[in-house]
Amino acid sequence: MKKYKIEGMNCASCAKMIELDLEDAGIKASCNYSQGLLEVDKNAQENNLRKVLEKNGYKIKPLK
After folding, report:
1. β strands within the chain, DSSP E
2. Hey, how many other C-beta atoms are within 10 angstroms of the C-beta on 31?
3. Mean per-residue pLDDT for 33-39?
4. Cα–Cα nearest to 19, from 36, 44, 38
5. What's phi and psi for 2, nearest 5 deg?
6. β-pairing verdict for 29-32 and 59-62
7. With contact defined as beta carbons under 8 Å apart, do 6 and 37 qualify?
């Protein structure tokens, strides 16, 4: 799994919507609102991930 810090989430519903939007794009993901973290499948392309999230006003930063 790849981990990202996600900015722009305001509630747990945002986290669920992010998971659903990514799932619709074929990206398996888990979003944790309280920690501000997003985990995606290691094979997910980062540019596809960014495209889906930025369209909805979220930003991500990879964690090492």
Report:
1. 2-7, 29-32, 37-40, 59-62
2. 24
3. 95
4. 38
5. -100, 140
6. unpaired
7. yes
